[in-house]
Amino acid sequence: MRAAVLPVSMELLLKVRELAVEFCDGTTSYSALHGIDFEVGRGEIVGLMGESGSGKSTTALSLLGLLPSDSARTSGSVIFRGRDLLLLNERAWRNVRGSQISLVFQEPEIALSPVMRAGDQVAEVIRAHRNCGWQRCRDEAVAALARVGLKDDRFFHSYPHQLSGGQRQRVVLAQALACEPALLLADEPTASLDARSQAEFLELLRQLRAETGLAVLLISHSAEVQASLADRVVILKEGRILEEGTFEALYEASAHAYTRKLLGATRTRISAAELGSAAQKL
To answer: What is the C-alpha to C-alpha distance for residues 207 and 211, in angstroms, rounded to an integer?
Structure first.
């Protein structure tokens, strides 16, 4: 199914066309994506939903050129700010990752070093992308942590094990946004959080979008998360886009049992609007 056209008033940021990924191990091959199309506008939050193995994480890694070059064959086009990212060499990719497109995974424990203070880990990201001294990087790291709600000086000097799960995920988000990228790829960012931390993290993303115009590709299997945050939802099944639209439209009138199962429409009679409201109150 071809991606829906962006609203007329929205400026295009990312255009993915015929993106296909095939993994090969020398003797066998497996197609993970079969020529998918979708778009993300500036300041838009697009949800990507699908069962495990549907190709969600492969899509995110493709957009950042992070698939293994020796075993993954990628084709199609990924047009970001007018240029095809799939044509970049590794040196050019380094100028995109982190500074223009960033990625947040679901497990902050994996993303963070246990032996470095949180603030220094954010400062390291800034130093990797900007030509400035260490003290300037640390000052900008303080500001980055403050933007995600970690304003107290103790957060800068804490080690990851001294922070809660929600606070660690905010540190990872501060790393991702420290260089002010235009697009954030959020891969199950609330999966490891409790209900309260999840709701706070989603509200933070909502605020950052409003304040900075950040665009988000939100990868999550959670209907509550998508209903709460996504402007549009793209349904992915076995490496193909099945359908897309607003959460409410898909929830109320999807023609596919697969989509209804993902959104919970076969198990409850509450409306999509009520589901989104409930998610925000978690």
So the answer is: 6
Q: What is the pLDDT of residues 160-180, one digit of tens each?
A: 999 999 999 999 999 999 999
> What are the two backbone dihedrals, phi and then psi, of residue 16, each rounded to the nearest 5 degrees?
-105, 130
Q: What are the tens digits of pLDDT across the range 205-264? A: 999 999 999 999 999 989 999 999 999 999 999 999 999 999 999 999 998 999 999 998
The answer to whether the Cα torsion of 123, 129, 134, 139 is positive or negative is: negative
pTM over 0.85: yes
Cβ–Cβ contacts within 10 Å for residue 4, how many? 15
CA-CA distance, 4 to 38, in Å (whole number)?
A: 7
d(CA 12, CA 27): 40
Binning pLDDT at 50, 70 and 90, where does residue 58 land? very high
Cα distances from 183 to residues 99, 102, 214, 216, in angstroms, run: 9, 6, 6, 6
